[in-house]
Amino acid sequence: MKALVSAAAGLLLLVVTPTSTTRAQGCGGALIITVPSPKTSPPTGPFLAVGDSTTVKINLGSELITGGTQFLVHRVRYELDCNHLFALGLPCTDQGDIMSYDFTQTVGPSCVGGVNAGQPCGEQTGCPGGHCPSGGALVQCQGRTWTATAGGSANEVVFTPDTPIVLPPEQSASPTLNNCFISFQVKLESLEPTSGPNSDDTPQQVEVVAGLSTVIGTDGHADAECDNGDAVGISQSSGVVTCPACAACSACNTVTGKCDATPCSTSTTTSTTPTFSTSTTVTEPPTTTTSSTTSSTTIPSGCVLGGLPEDSLAGVECAIDGLRTTLNEPPQPACRGSGPCKHCSLEPTLDRVASLVMAAANTTSAKKCKRSLRMARLAAKSLSARVASLSRGKCLAPADRVTRLDAEAVDLANRTKALLKSHFCAGNQ
């Protein structure tokens, strides 16, 4: 069930699609939806991580009206998350429990957050350090409170003004002019699935839709009408840009949108009975006791690579974390030279390996698991070949780090291959 909360509860990316305008005979309306960056203080990053919220803004306007003088808005609809493989309209195809709306928030004429929190927005286009949920330059849109209710599905939120918004003809919906708008916050509950019926071709952008429906409501009105008797239907899509899926011992950097290595605690689990286990934190370095007397090295991210089977998921994830830690530890590997040495970035390919391995682990289909692991193996093999090529060309420095990167990339390629050939995917049925 989609989470619709009803309990008392240095970049800027602005996703804007062209103005949506619709005319029904002699009645024209306009609507623009914008989704700003989730972070409002420097450093500002455009990528939303799970648990983060962002502010959606909807600007309303009118077009030429034939045989009338008024454009009336009774309701505005918002679709929380939409599958990009299907039509982006009202309603759209729900993508699952990706985004949520908290119905306890107030969409009214008072500042939310910032130094003027709780104070009337007045005619200002924004509240310093916060935002104004409702208002605009037009007096018809000032001092209005909107009530949010669940729509025809769990994916739809319907906003209704205290009294209908009445606009004269040809009023721009431009966010720059800001004649008439509402804004509200939505929260990222989970990343988009990378496989299965709810997945689409934009896993790092959650499509959303805002609009006005011509369906007659219980009040006897369509969402928007003109006083000449015509109704108007409008819908416009936009997108919330999200972080990628990051492997264990790493987290998304919401500024860069990449997975950065994070410290991991080192622990071992000793089985005492078939149903109970005890966890012990290891604070001293270098060895881990297994059924044999083999000594293994703990990599900087915390997992013990030598103690993990080559064909295990934990071993592949540990190898990814180890390689990422080597890439990120200071000093950063320097790219020097020209020609083939100009393109030394290894993290995008490593991120792809991590994403594919996670997709294989999360799917319930053995076929999709195998497919993801085959792609992960190819990506890991490509990464290993790229490191070897850069090493031969003396493109990277310092030399000791290059040697480690080479060995770790080879190990990751071998472990990914071993996991593919194992019975790992057999359990995903």
Number of helices: 4
What is the element string, with H for helices and E for strands? EEEEEEEEEEEEEEEEEEEEEEHEHHEH
Sheet-strand content, in percent, reads: 25-35%
- Overall geometry comes to elongated
User: How confident is the prediction overall: mean pLDDT?
Assistant: 80
Q: What does the largest sheet look like?
A: 8 strands, mixed
Radius of gyration: 27 Å
Give the terminus-to-terminus CA distance: 23 Å
SS-based class: alpha+beta
| Share of residues in helices | 10-25%
- What is the total number of structural domains? 2
Number of strands: 24
Contiguous runs where pLDDT drops below 50 for at least 5 residues: 6-18, 266-301
Account of the protein in words:
Helix content is 19%, strand content 26%. It is of the alpha+beta class. The chain has two domains: 4-241; 250-258 and 305-427, Four Helix Bundle (Hemerythrin (Met), subunit A). The strands form seven sheets. Strands 1, 2, 3, 4, 5, 8, 11 and 15 form an eight-stranded mixed sheet that branches. Helix 1 runs antiparallel to helix 2. The longest helix is centred in the last third of the chain and has 27 residues, at 366-392.
